[in-house]
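Table S4 entry, Putative 4-hydroxy-4-methyl-2-oxoglutarate aldolase.
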Amino acid sequence: MSTFNNNISKSDADKILALGSATLYEAQGAYGALDAGIKPVSNNMKVVGPALTIDMRPGDNLMIHYALLQAKAGDVLVIDCKGFLEAGVWGDVLTTQALSIGLAGIIVNGAVRDAANIIEMAFPVFTRGLSIKGTGKSQPGKVNVPVTIGDCTIYPGDIIIGDIDGVVVVKADNIHNALSQAIERENKESNFKEKIEKGATTADLMKLHDTFRFLGL
């Protein structure tokens, strides 16, 4: 991930990856998380970058091949094949092309295959599942249009952040504010951890005792 669009610098991307998806999600008001069904193929995979969206038919990956002709280094392909799990729309051949372009990674609302090879190639792939089955290459679709995964709508250029905890989407014009809020949240939590190590409790720090009493606990 050496190249990014104007919305995010390499330095900011490194900070975002260090903070993690959960912190960015909380920092922007518990908003923008994809559902928990989408996870990295390998637990150490991380991704950050602007979305290049693909709206495509289940079981057919023609539009992925088309989108790769438009993709730029640093992009994150967000592939919506409607959660269909009975065909692997992405594999090691497409991964080879993605690496040659310099893509940051992909998010697939569906299934991929060749997982072992993808892991060996160290390319970040976040997916709903795995399938050994292949796809057709004949159905139309759309590139760079809004796509909805679960209850989250992703627009072209939105910033995608993914790691072992999951995937969160941050609007491009809010990424710097979200990063600032995330750093502030991380500092607060670090302060909490230091106090806990010195004997404080989470109930004290979060002022939960009144809630306990109200609930009769």
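The mean pLDDT is 94.
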